[in-house]
Structure formats: C-alpha cells, structure tokens
Specification:
CATH architecture of the largest domain: 3-Layer(aba) Sandwich
CATH topology of the largest domain: Rossmann fold
CATH class of the largest domain: Alpha Beta
Strand order of the largest sheet: 5-4-6-7-8
Strand content: 25-35%
CATH superfamily of the largest domain: Response regulator
Oligomer: single chain
Radius of gyration: 18 Å
Helix content: 25-40%
Order of helices and strands: EEEEHEHEHEHEHE
Structural class: alpha/beta
Distance between the termini: 15 Å
Number of domains: 2
Shape: globular
Number of helices: 5
Length: 174
C-alpha cells in the first residue's frame, strides 16, 4: 500500500488537500481530508432570532465565517451547495427538526455537529449522540461556552490530522 498526498491546481477541492489511497491497480479514492485551508465555515440553524444572533456574533468575533438559518431545511439546502466545516442545530425548529437534519447530514458527511435544545432529558441527549452529533447543549446556552467548544473541536481535528500526517510521513510520496 502506498499513500500519496496530492496537492496542485487540479487536485485542490474546496480549498483543501485530500489524502488518497492508491491501490495496486491504480486509481485513487479519497480516504480523508488532510488540511483545511482558510477560514472555517459554520452553519447555524435556530428559529429563535435572539439565540441565532448571539451565537452568530460570538462566532464571528472568534474569527469564524458563519451563515445562520431559520430552519434546518434551509441549512440542508445550503450544505448541499457548499458544505460547512461545522454545523450547529436547534432541535425544535419548523420543518425538519435538528435530529432529522443531523441524520440527513450523516448520510453524506462527517462534519462536526453540535445540538442546541430546550429539552434536557437523557433521551434527547442520547438521541442526539446516537445520530452522530458531537456535542449537546441545553438552552439557555452561553455563547462563550459554544465558542470554546467549537475551538476545542477544531483543535482536536487539527491534532488528529497532524498525527495522521506524522504517521504516514515515512510511507508518503510527496
């Protein structure tokens, strides 16, 4: 097995490097994203304007590009056009709720997903995590706590990528 890291004008996809696994017979398949270049994009869906605006402001002040949506359906449409680096979802919204949006996103993406909910039962928490969400916040939520958890998630992803690159470095062909 040979691991190749490819980066040039034709292999750059959405501003990121991709890691390819080359099989004996040739053609590569993407097995993971290695490096994200540029500002992180976060999609936020919450039908409560005050929460949406507070989180938007705090996340933008922390240096993130944020697009806010009133419904999960609008977020899904935007994600299909331009995938985000992270998604933050309210559970109870008009149209598709946060749980169903999470389930839909997990069909095609490994994007980090944070859930916001006014419901705080163990069942809601378990449902969110079972659907592949990475974190669960009970409302009222501190925007600063959300920002800190977002930073921690992106930091962990960066550490994992660095570890992967370090592990592969001896076998990699640049």
């Amino acid at each position: 097995m040979v691991i190749v890291i490819v980066y040039n004008g034709t292999r750059q996809v959405n501003g990121s490097l991709k890691l390819f696994h080359i099989r004996k017979k040739g053609i590569a398949s993407v097995i993971g994203q290695v490096e994200q270049i540029g500002q992180k994009l976060i999609y936020l869906a919450d039908d409560e304007p005050t929460i949406r605006e507070a989180l938007l402001t705090f996340l933008e002040d922390a240096g993130y590009e944020v697009q806010a949506f009133e419904t999960g359906d609008l977020l899904l449409a935007a994600f299909a056009e331009r995938p985000a680096d992270m998604v933050i979802l309210d559970v109870m919204m008009p149209g598709s709720n946060g749980f169903s949006v999470s389930k839909e996103l997990r069909r095609t993406s490994h994007v980090p997903i944070f859930i916001l909910s006014a419901r705080d039962s163990d069942l809601d928490y378990q449902t969110g995590l079972d659907l592949g969400c990475d974190d669960f916040f009970t409302k009222p939520v501190s925007p600063m706590n959300v920002v800190m958890r977002v930073k921690a998630m992106f930091r962990r992803i960066a550490y994992e990528r660095e570890a992967l690159l370090g592990t592969l470095k001896n076998d990699a062909v640049l």
